[in-house]
Amino acid sequence: MNARLTALATVLDVVVLVALGVGLFFAPLTLVWAFEDGFSTELAASWGVAVNGWFLGHGVPLVFTIPPSLAQSLAIGALDSQFQVDVALLGIALLTLLWGYRIGNRDGTKRFPLLTWVLAVGVMVGLSFLLLWSLPAQVVDIDVLDALVRPALFLAAGLALATWAGPDTAGRALMRDVVPGRLSAIVRSGFAAGVGSLAGVLGLAAVAVAALVLVSFASVVSLYEALQPGVYGIIALSIAQLALLPTVVVWAFSWMVGPGFSLGVGAMVSPLGTNLQAVPALPLAGIVPSEVPTFALMIIVVPVVVAFGAGLASRARLVGDTRGGLWRDIQTTRFGDQPLVQIAVAAVIAGGVAAGGGGVLAAVTSGQMGPGRFVLVGPDPSQIALWWGLEVFIGVLLGLVSGGLRRSAVSAGR
């Protein structure tokens, strides 16, 4: 594939991505406009909602200003007539990130990386500006810089992931050339253990959310009935909740880690205690347990166990097939070359990687979801980073050490 075809494919990919993301909101809203509203309202309003949903999916804050007459009729105080919504609908952001990963994995991208990166990010910024410009007059204000930068960041994250994922990528080749072999092994081992721990607990959280949806299906259906959205309204509401589902998975992840998450000021959901008050008027909120399960405190051990497994799995990256104990003769082995020292450094790297990833996920899934008590929703990024980083450090350290003890026992038996 030559440079022109690579450029054309990149531009088309980003255009399709944006059209798909906005269309996921606009298509069901068009059905509501046609069949529920009977063409009586302006389609431009549905377009505005779809574009706002796409921006919110990338974590762009939406500032709502309610007219005084409407605020008075809704019994909203003057201080709450302007509020912000910035909890990301991560389903849209995940689509953008995976699409960026797909673009980054193309053969043309590997041949012309700079061209692809500049075009992909530039086209995303340009399309974000066009979407912002196309918005009709509304009660929602969007910061221009946030609207241009945040969607492009998720696309760039996907491109960066494709640069590093896999054994023959440009990022891995750069690390092999720049970082000395032994240090490279330590960094790769710690990074793999940290990412593996994060992926493992997120996978368990996704399974837990799926199980909660099945168990609480009656509650979810009753909330749908209470809202009375109509057939096409149900379709639109369901798509919006599918976009919110990855955000809920991150909330479940924060619950498993320990600190939990908030559903409003004074309403915490945590293994250490649950205090639910009024929850957001979404059917998906029906899966939130009103009481702490009896096995809740045991759940906190699960992230450590997952990190332990990740440490065992990544030990081969650190020492390969080398036999021997965790501490060798100091006269023949330098302090920095001691297996126990290298294990500790790899565990620190794993904890740092996990803490950073968990903190970022918590940051994009926390914030404000409305006026009043919903100005505080989601997990606390600093607490998630602290708890999760410590759990991964302990688990990976134990996994690497136990792997070393096992190899030492095998060597002694021989």
Describe this protein's structure:
Residues 408-414 have low confidence and may be disordered. Strands 6-5-4-7 form a four-stranded antiparallel sheet, covered by helices on one side. A hairpin with a 2-residue loop joins β5 and β6 (273-274). The protein is mainly α and 414 residues long. The protein contains 15 helices and seven strands. The chain folds into two domains: 1-176, no CATH class; 179-414, no CATH class. It has helices at 3-36, 43-57, 68-73, 90-104, 107-111, 113-134, 144-164, 170-178, 181-215, 217-227, 231-257, 296-299, 301-319, 339-364, 381-413; strands at residues 62-65, 82-85, 140-142, 261-263, 268-270, 273-274, 377-378. α1 (3-36) runs parallel beside α6 and α4 (90-104) packs across α11 (231-257). Helices cover 68% and strands 5% of the residues.
Summary keywords:
414 residues; mainly alpha; four-stranded antiparallel β-sheet; three-stranded antiparallel β-sheet; disordered C terminus
Low-pLDDT ranges: 408-414
Decide which structural class fits the backbone: mainly alpha
The strands making up the biggest β-sheet line up spatially as 6-5-4-7
List the domain count as a whole number.
2
First and last CA, distance: 55 Å
Average of pLDDT: 82
Gyration radius, to the nearest Å? 25 Å
Which outline best applies? globular
The largest sheet is: 4 strands, antiparallel
Helix/strand order, N-terminal first: HHEHEHHHEHHHHHEEEHHHEH
**Beta fraction of the residues?**
5-15%
Please give the count of helices: 15
Helical fraction equals 55-70%
Topology, number of strands: 7
